Amino acid sequence: MASEERQKEILEKLKQAVIQYDEDQAKEAAQEALELEGLKANDAIFNGLVVGMQEVGRLFEAQEYFVPELLMCADALYAGLEILKPHVEELDLGVKGSVVIGTVEGDVHDIGKNIVKMMFDVAGFTVYDLGRDVPLDKFVEEQLRTDSDLLCLSAMMTTTMTGMQKVIDDIRKKNPKVKIMIGGAPVSKDVAQKYGADGYAADATNALADAIKMIGSLKDLKDEAEGKKK
Ligand code: B12
């Protein structure tokens, strides 16, 4: 079978494994993806597993799936992710920073946050992952403790998204120089602007690209302050 066709077949298998909450199939397809030359681990994640979870979201909205199915779909996604993650290519983008990341209080959705975290990991960032359902004060404490370049907040519900505003207000008072990035399904550029965040990205790849830009400008500012630049 031509390699392109085989790629499509494996991506479809990964997607279906998530939709049909089949952990064994997810593991098998992830293994097959690694064995197929030309199919990169990140493609398998973004164009296979994540696409499957997007379809699951649609099935939930259509009331064909309920919370128990979502939980099993998440398990299948994680089963595939565990196999693929160590093979995601390391990226050297010239800038390495540090980031505190977590999903805000009241919100247990962590798949998206973990995928964003993975991108920071492969780019060689130092990542302080606070997990999910993180008390709002904890974000502020950890940022101040680690003095990270970036603070990344994830929220997947309109009800929990508002917690981000509080974190941003609190941290700005204590450390105005930290760059704050927010994301998650209900978040948009407008929300980010309204909350006073420095950035928003719709997905993990853009999150990394924007983070690099922000940290680049942050480092320029630091250099200037230290007199390294004219
Ligand atoms: C899987 C899922 C669950 C699983 C989560 C398992 C887990 N370990 O994460 C479980 C079953 C636990 C769950 C529970 C609930 N869920 Co739910 N869930 C979903 C679902 C179907 C998929 C989310 C997902 O993983 N997507 C795949 C990932 C890869 O995408 P992502 O999360 O969007 O992340 C990407 C971007 O958003 C971005 N990103 C994410 N975070 C960040 C952070 C930064 C800084 C940046 C830059 C970018 C970024 O990059 C990511 C990767 O590319 C969504 C549907 C949807 N449309 O999102 C509903 C959804 C989020 N859930 C919803 C609801 C209502 C619930 C429940 C209240 C249901 C209930 N009746 O109990 C509970 C809430 C529990 C709680 N207190 O948190 C609603 C929220 C509605 C709203 N607007 O408020 C949604 C939108 C479904 C819907 N259409 O109604 N859920």
SS field, number of helical segments: 9
State the total count of DSSP E strands: 5
How large a portion of the residues is in β-strands, by DSSP E? 5-15%
Structural class based on helices, strands and sheet pairing:
alpha/beta
Under the CATH scheme, the architecture of the largest domain is 3-Layer(aba) Sandwich
**What is the H level of CATH, i.e. the homologous superfamily of the largest domain?**
Cobalamin-binding domain
Anisotropy-based shape:
globular
Count structural domains. Answer: 2
Ions and ligands: cobalamin
Describe this structure as you would to a colleague:
With 230 residues, the protein is α/β, with parallel strands linked by helices. It folds into two domains: 3-87, Methionine synthase domain (Methyltransferase, Methionine Synthase (B12-binding Domains), Chain A, domain 1, Orthogonal Bundle); 98-225, Cobalamin-binding domain (Rossmann fold, 3-Layer(aba) Sandwich). 60% of the residues lie in helices and 10% in strands. It has nine helices and five strands; from the N terminus they run ααααβαβαβαβαβα. It has helices at residues 3-19, 23-35, 41-61, 67-84, 111-122, 136-146, 158-174, 189-195, 204-225; strands at 98-103, 126-129, 150-154, 179-183, 199-200. A five-stranded parallel beta sheet has the order 2-1-3-4-5, with helices on both faces. The mean pLDDT is 93.
